Amino acid sequence: MLIAIGSDPNAHGLKDAVAEYLVELGHEVHDFGANDPLYPKTAIAVAQSVANGEVDRGVVMCGTGIGVSISANKVPGAHCALLTDAYQAERAQLSNNANMVAFGAQVTGVESVKRLLRDYLSVSYLENDRSAPKLAVLHEYDVGRPTRS
């Protein structure tokens, strides 16, 4: 799987650890860097690569994860979940078909992020899940994307 990652300078160390871990898991990484202190720029760039189908998934990071998740979700076709626990990691994909996840370097440790990423990447969305009607409503707001049922 090709996974895009990016962060602000606050999460540079976490981003590097995540990139290394994803490679260990057998994924290819497209690193958008960690130099821009204006995290929306990096989060939006990662989200655009996901929404355009250039990569399979995206991972964005800042101090809390909140700012990058809000920024990524501004991009039509990008669906970013802020993860803080194992149940959210599974449900982000199983129930919500999230194609991106966000983490906060100042609130979630590296080993916890690795575990959450492993849990998130180990499951796939179920097309006929009970959440499908809910997602169809959300997808109606994505510009240029068909409604899913």
TrEMBL record:
Keyword Isomerase: yes
GO function terms (MF aspect): intramolecular oxidoreductase activity, interconverting aldoses and ketoses
Keywords linked to the UniProt accession: Isomerase
Gene3D superfamilies (UniProt xref): Sugar-phosphate isomerase, RpiB/LacA/LacB
Keyword Isomerase: yes
Superkingdom in the source lineage: Bacteria
Any one of the GO BP annotations: carbohydrate metabolic process
Family affiliation: Belongs to the LacAB/RpiB family.
NCBIfam families: PRK05571.1, rpiB_lacA_lacB
Protein name: RpiB/LacA/LacB family sugar-phosphate isomerase
Originating organism: Georgenia subflava
Lineage: Bacteria, Bacillati, Actinomycetota, Actinomycetes, Micrococcales
